[in-house]
Amino acid sequence: MAKRTYVAMISLFLILLLSACGSAEGSKIEKLCLKLLKLIKTYKVMAVKTETDQIIKMGGQGNKGLPEDGIPIQSTIDAVHQMEPMAFHQTIESVAQITEQYYTDKGLYMTNPTGDGWVKAP
């Protein structure tokens, strides 16, 4: 059951990613993601590194003292996902903050944002 949920979550993520792409490049990404979905079902362990660069703009609300060009945000996620038994470990680095998370059959745990130990997610 957990494996189905995990594959469904990855599938949903990829669908959301595809919906954001409306260009020729989006078509290439769509083909790549469809191939990836087929392969995911055969993997037992996956290592993933994701690097994201974003520009956050205020839109119609006005900049309210923020830079006109927006605020650049960079993040990096290093993760290892295991299918059976379902588990993962990941480190997320963004805006001078590092968060570590892991999931096992006992639940989801992450480093406390205040920097004091670990907390269990609800």
Brief description of this entry?
The protein has 122 residues and is an alpha+beta fold. The chain is 29% helix and 39% strand. The protein contains 2 helices and 6 strands.
Can you walk me through this structure?
The model has no long low-confidence stretch (mean pLDDT 78). This protein has a six-stranded antiparallel sheet with strand order 1-2-3-4-5-6, with no helix packed on it. The two termini are 20 Å apart. The longest helix has 18 residues, at 2-19. The chain is built from two helices and six strands, in the order H-H-E-E-E-E-E-E. Helix content is 29%, strand content 39%. It folds into two domains: 1-42; 44-122, no CATH class. With 122 residues, it is an alpha+beta fold. Keywords: Signal. It holds the Pfam family DUF6612.
The pLDDT mean sits at 78
**Roughly how much helix do the residues carry, as a percent range?**
25-40%
Estimated radius of gyration:
18 Å
Strand order within the widest beta sheet: 1-2-3-4-5-6
Work out the strand percent: 35-45%
Domain tally? 2
- Can you tell me the residue ranges where pLDDT is under 50 for at least 5 consecutive residues? none
- Give the ordered list of helices and strands: HHEEEEEE
Tally of DSSP β-strands: 6
The span between the termini is 20 Å
Q: Count every helix, treating DSSP H or I runs of 4 or more residues as helices.
A: 2
Q: What class do helices, strands and sheet pairing give? A: alpha+beta
What sort of overall outline do the alpha carbons produce when their principal axes are compared? flat
The major beta sheet can be summarized as: 6 strands, antiparallel
Keywords: Signal
InterPro entries: DUF6612
Pfam families: DUF6612
Signal peptide: 1-24
